[in-house]
Amino acid sequence: MIIENNSLGRTLHALDLIAERHKALSSNLANMDTPNYKRKDISFSQYLGGVANPLETKLASVMGPSPVTVETSDEKVNPATELSEIQKNSIMYTVATRRMTSLLTEMRTVINMGNG
Q: Is residue 3 part of a domain?
């Protein structure tokens, strides 16, 4: 199996985006009673474009293909909604870390075959 040229970079970037979204969501929970606090979220739209891997295609359908932007809204923070979004974000993290593990395993296999 050949590792795509930019798979590792895209997966690392996805992990960074997931971490930033977690910060925004947890900040919403921490500040839900703060007067005039504006709810924040991260938009993953247009992040992954032209992907060929089935896992990356699934990520792209959720994340979209563009740079991350912090969105604020005047809506009141709903703890149930924030916890639900944090859970979804945790699932994305699990998928991305499994992808990273798979890429590293492929690289190790290729290196070991070259040494044999």
A: no
Q: In this structure, what token pair is assigned to residue 22?
A: 């977690």
Q: How far is CA 52 from CA 2, 35, 49, 55, 91, in A?
A: 12, 46, 9, 9, 21
- Residue 13: give the domain boundaries: 8-105
pLDDT tens readout for residues 58-111? 555 555 444 456 778 778 899 999 999 999 999 999 999 999 999 999 888 988
CA atoms within 13 A on the CB side of 101: 6
Model pTM?
0.69
Question: Structurally, how many domains does the chain consist of?
Answer: 1
Residue 72 inside a domain? The answer is yes
